[in-house]
Amino acid sequence: MAAHGRPPLPLLLLSACLYSCVAVRGFKVSSGPAEPPNPPAVRTVDLPAKEEAAAQPRRASGWKLAEEEACREDLSRLCPKHTWTNNLAVLECLQDRREHMELAPDCNHLLWSYKLNLTTDPKFESVALEVCKSTIAEIKECNDEERGRGYLVSCLVDHRGNISEYQCNQYVTKMTSIVFSDYRLICGFMDKCKEDINLLHCGSINVGQKDIHSQGEVIACLEKALVKEAEQQNHIRPIKEECQKAILRVAELSSDDFHLDRHLYFACRDDRERFCLNVQAGEGRVYKCLFNHKFEEAMSEKCRDALTTRQKLISQDYRVSYSLAKACKLDLKKQHCSLDTALPRAREARLSHLLLCLEAAVHRGRPVSGECQGEMLDYRRMLMEDFSLSPEIVLHCRTEIEAHCSGLHRKGRTLHCLMRVGRGDHSTVGSVCQGALQTLIQSADPGADYRIDRALNEACESVIQTACKHIRSGDPMILSCLMEHLYTEKMVEDCEHRLLELQYFISRDWKLDPILYRKCQGDAARLCHTHGWNETSDLMPAGAVFSCLYRHAYRTEEQGRRLSRDCKMEVQRVLHQRALDVKLDPELQKRCISDLGKWCSSKNDAGQELECLQDHLEDLVQSCRDVVGNLTELESEIQMKDFRFSYKFKMACKEDVLRLCPNIKKKVDVVVCLSTTVRNDTLQEAREQRVSLKCRKQLRVEELEMSEDIRLEPELYDPCKPDISRLCPNVPFGNAQMIECLKEQKRHLSPRCHQRIFRLQEVEMSDPELDYQLMRVCKQMIKRFCTEADARNILQCLKQNKNSELMDPKCKQMITKRQITQNTDYRLNPVLRKACRVDIPKFCKSILNKASEDSELEGQVISCLKLKYADQKLSSDCEDQIRVILQESALDYRLDPQLKVHCSEEISSLCAEEAAAQEQMGQVEECLKVNLLKVKHDDCKKEVLNMLKESKADIFVDPVLHTACALDLKHHCAAVTPGRGRQMSCLMEALQVKRVRLQPECKKRLQDRIDMWSYAAKVAPAEGFSDLAVQVMTSPSKNYLLFMVALSVCVLFLVGLLCGRITKRVTRELKDR
């Protein structure tokens, strides 16, 4: 904070004032602590007689802090030399050091006394009057301040947010760090809190005594006392109201820059560098950053304690948070949440009041700015993470916490512990604590966004990613989705506990279910006489509103007023969820607690308790019988009773199921029935789909969920059960891990299971969205590269971006897996199948005739097409696709099934090191080419020769050669069109021309290829005239060969012509005889 460069005008004026004020006030300096004699007003500081006698006056114009013996050693050790001539720069440098460790007490005392005299000196105020003349006139409070008591500068600091004048703003900014370095300099603070400081032993304020406190420690002591007082039922030492206001006002004034909170600044200096080094100070940014890291293991305890104290102050007065107060200022006025004179100021300014008021506006659909909602989200999460920020919880739940939840302070665990105890069969949570918990949950409102509840978020992350991935993150429907999957295979135990703990309290206040409240608030006001979202009534007990709503849910027109359609649907949803656990229905639990223990104590599974009560309906007490009877009547109105159905699916497909699949009850069978109907309509190109559009959309979601667990697809699961127990015994079913295991073990599967897996892969390749593992692993990469790609082209898009530097390694590995699968059979590559639909039956008919419908062709068709590509016989579309496959397999031998099968021994013996490389860039293929003479098996040798043949047709399928000759291609063959061996011929011709100089590596690789091709020609001669013609036409030396052929023909012609003439002459001579 030391000053750099030329000081601005205010500082020049201030420096001049400092020098003059020393002369006017007769400032004395001694070898010991220096004290100016008798400053004005009440805050006088006297020196002991001995020191005063030893003091010698200095000339005002030449006095410097740097010259004082008390600080000379510290100054030379801690401050840059260029600051020594400027008293303010010295002050800034020294006061930001850890004074109790680094500065001598005498130097500390000198600095405090010096600052105290500065702010109380009339000459000092004259600088402010001159620099801030117009600003003071505009701010009435400062204009009315009594001069000569140091209040003017403090007042300007108080109102620094309203100062627009540049020079005045610079001056006040500089003074802020001085004023906040010592509580005695803050406007009126000492007058208002003098008694409390003495009473609470927060420091020494006695005149003439050495200051035993550290800078900012007095305020920190008072702040701790203030928050502690709120957590005590009997205020033993209540802080005076005017001091309470002063404490909160000081905390508010220091809310934008954490340097101004001296205690927190020194406590968190190292933590700031550790966690928030790149966060710029100002506007409360450092505070927020530190709050976010409060529960990190590396956070120091002293910083965590200081942060907790500040958060507790924010809970008492939201204005202590600069970012929250600034972001929500206009919204508070717009929603009439501003200060109300009819309410006590302390209650009105509480964070909970602000949150409740603004949340009520959001729930009613009124506009609240996104910036304000973002700040609210942060502080709602803060309340859920640390129970100690709620004084009501600390006060009223102390006994319960000590008995059941001690040692669980972090990350919301204490709150969930209290919730667990509260919903237990023998609840030991008192009614007052229960009410405090309910109030906190309403303030934090986790039902609106599950991410606010950190404990729930962490416990349910895996379930959300699998079961609720179709719902936008932060959507209120996430909680509903989790409830729908309660007690299913997708639910994990920890998530189940956290979810039920929260739902227990949400179910006791219908307003905490945001979807229910939004859809039913009009009906509740009309039929149940409810109040606003943030208003409560003792006349409306827990669960009463929802009981009222479901009483009106199925009334007929003759019976009177009924619920709206949207509200009725929400009531149905909640009823389904509450059927899972009777504790989620407050009225049912209250009235049936004795019957549950009597008849249903052994029923613990999902929904069994309610079913048990329904079975014993006639045996129940009257009050319980009435509640259970009402629920049973409502359930009978709902056609689809399988609780495992997702709510959205039920609502979207109810009519379609009743019309197309009327006698099917199980979810899997319903999905199969509807999917079959959609598929048949699509294949038959029906004019109108029988399944509605909204149902088709939700059906898509259900199909995706089924792809996540093989057990949800009986047609696949049943034939593969033996293989699962034999090949994948320890693999979990969730996250499609079992299906992935079967795919990897495909060669070892039984025929029936193999057929089913092949059909599944065929469907997934045609519609990659159904490939659960691909979509899960590559989720972020799809967002990055394929946002505009059609759903059916996602895999194609990922393949095109596979070698990007931004590609995630795990996703790249998954793409390679799918490419290997595609290259085993052309039917698994929809793009190739479409492009080569004419070429495949034309050139590979013999292979197709031998294959069965569900058996894999192990890459035979693709190998066939590769050979025809080398012979240049394919159609253009098919040629393009085969070129891509050749380029991909040239880089990774695993993408060539035939090569991998036939050359497995050679790869393991000759190219083991290359095959083990993590990144495949054509090393194995090059190794096999180089070791061609060592290859013993004919099938492998044939595959390597085919590779050489393919590389002659296109240099791009020979990555090693292409890399070596890239520059030469650019220089010598830039005008040559790629493909059909043209660029290879160009390089071969350049090699033969002596004046053309190729790169040494390119020249060497080309010569190696020529030798390989020569050997290939000897080992694998042409099989027929057409093959010979193709070899000649694709040869790099085809011009030379054609010339020799033409020359041979000409020689033969001449020889024949000559022989003909001789023969003719001999014949004629014989005739003449």
UniProtKB/TrEMBL annotation:
Spell out the GO cellular component terms annotated for this protein, sorted alphabetically and separated by semicolons: Golgi membrane
Q: Which PROSITE patterns match?
A: GLG1_C_RICH, PROKAR_LIPOPROTEIN
Species assigned in the record: Oryzias latipes
From the record, give the transmembrane residue ranges: 1040-1063
How does this chain sit within the bilayer?
A: Single-pass type I membrane protein
- Domain of life (superkingdom): Eukaryota
Report the locations given in the UniProt record. Answer: Golgi outpost; Membrane
Q: Where are the annotated Cys-rich GLG repeats, by residue?
A: 102-164, 238-298, 367-426, 490-557, 562-621, 690-744, 748-806, 873-936
Instruction: Alphabetically list the UniProt keywords.
Output: Glycoprotein, Membrane, Repeat, Sialic acid, Signal, Transmembrane, Transmembrane helix
Q: Which PANTHER family match?
A: GOLGI APPARATUS PROTEIN 1, SELECTIN LIGAND RELATED
Which residues constitute the signal peptide according to the record?
1-23
The protein, known as? Golgi apparatus protein 1
